[in-house]
Design brief:
The protein is an all-alpha fold and 123 residues long. The chain is built from eight helices and no strands. It has one domain.
Length: 123
């Protein structure tokens, strides 16, 4: 494994793994105004998690000198796999767990495609 790959995965794990903490805190604090119901939805939770991962990776990429276009493509690659799975979730074809598992599996391919598109920035 190349060290640049570790450099992209480490910030994502450090910021993305504690994602439930702010979601739970906002849910408890916002319970009187209906935030708990919104945050209990799989779509909302997934988008918060994708945002946490994207902020970490985008910050690290800019720190490492990647251009704005590469950062934007990587951000799209981190959201798209989950968003395309929302319709199957709404139709009942996919469970919330399936959304997370399949979304993360597709995420690997989407990120690899974004990296291969700008191979010169990642080698």
């Amino acid at each position: 494994m190349r060290w640049r790959t570790v450099g992209l995965v480490a910030p994502t794990a450090l910021v993305g793994l504690p994602a439930p903490v702010p979601v739970v805190a906002v849910g408890i604090a916002g319970a009187p105004i209906g935030w708990a119901e919104l945050l209990a939805r799989s779509e909302t939770y997934t988008l918060v998690m994708a945002t946490n991962m994207t902020v970490a990776v985008a910050t690290w990429m800019r720190f490492r000198g990647h251009g704005r276009a590469a950062v934007a493509e990587m951000a799209i690659a981190m959201y798209a796999p989950f968003i395309v799975l929302f319709p199957p979730l709404w139709l009942g074809v996919l469970s919330a767990t399936g959304l997370m598992v399949l979304g993360h599996m597709l995420l690997l391919f989407a990120v690899a495609a974004a990296m291969l598109r700008r191979r010169d920035e990642y080698t």
